[in-house]
């Protein structure tokens, strides 16, 4: 299927690459289907591109690459909504707020995006009672795993 994207122009995607947000994303309830595209080769950044709106592409990253102490627990309702099982392949992403210069860019650690790649279900989880905010400045170096 052909898709017009915000950052990558027109690309071809496969149905199995589509990630579904059953209730959309907070503030974008009509946006329920996305695809993850690497920003560039060997980059820690991705574009979470809407299938519905070509101008809507969130820059995201895996927060553990920048915040080594970042952690949270998924509640039972989130695990159920994403149909997470023992053998599910899970990915956690943070949406970035891009700033000029890029060194001022921040990550939303209070509302991570959790993707179950086993069934392609995703949800943005709002963490309550947490030390995390929506604007954590990215560290200048990627944490080595």
Q: Can you give a write-up of this model?
A:
With 145 residues, this protein is mainly β. It has a single domain, classed as BH3618-like, CATH 2.30.290. It is 4% helix and 32% strand. It is built from one helix and eleven strands. A seven-stranded mixed barrel has the order 3-4-5-6-7-9-10. Strands 1-2 form a two-stranded antiparallel ribbon. The longest helix has 6 residues. It is globular, with a radius of gyration of 15 Å. The termini are far apart.
Supply the CATH architecture: Roll
Spatial order of the strands forming the largest sheet = 3-4-5-6-7-9-10
Count of domain modules: 1
Structural class: mainly beta
Strand residues, percent: 25-35%
Question: Which percent bin holds the helix content?
Answer: under 10%
Number of strands: 11
Number of helices: 1
What's the short version?
This protein is mostly beta strands and about 140 residues long. The protein has one helix at about 75-80; strands at about 1-5, 10, 20, 35-40, 45-50, 55-60, 90-95, 105, 115, 120-125, 135.
Q: Helices and strands in order, then pairings?
A:
Blueprint: E1 2-4, E2 10-12, E3 19-21, E4 33-38, E5 45-50, E6 57-61, H1 76-81, E7 90-97, E8 106-107, E9 113-116, E10 121-124, E11 136-137
Parallel strand pairs: 3-10
Antiparallel strand pairs: 1-2, 3-4, 4-5, 5-6, 6-7, 7-8, 7-9, 8-11, 9-10
Keywords:
32% strand, 1 helix, 145 residues, globular, mainly beta
């Amino acid at each position: 299927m052909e898709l017009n994207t915000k950052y990558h122009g027109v690309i071809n995607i496969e149905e199995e690459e589509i990630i579904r947000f059953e209730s959309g994303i907070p503030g974008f309830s009509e946006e329920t289907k996305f695809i993850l595209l690497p920003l560039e080769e060997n980059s820690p950044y991705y574009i979470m591109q809407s299938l519905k709106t070509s101008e809507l592409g969130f820059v995201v990253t895996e927060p553990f690459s920048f915040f080594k102490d970042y952690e949270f627990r998924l509640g039972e309702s989130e695990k159920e909504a994403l149909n997470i099982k023992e053998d599910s392949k899970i990915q956690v992403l943070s949406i970035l707020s891009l700033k000029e210069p890029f060194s001022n860019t921040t990550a939303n650690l209070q509302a991570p995006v959790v993707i179950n790649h086993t069934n392609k279900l995703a949800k943005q989880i709002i963490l309550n009672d947490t030390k995390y905010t929506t604007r954590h400045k990215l560290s200048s170096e990627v944490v080595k795993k």
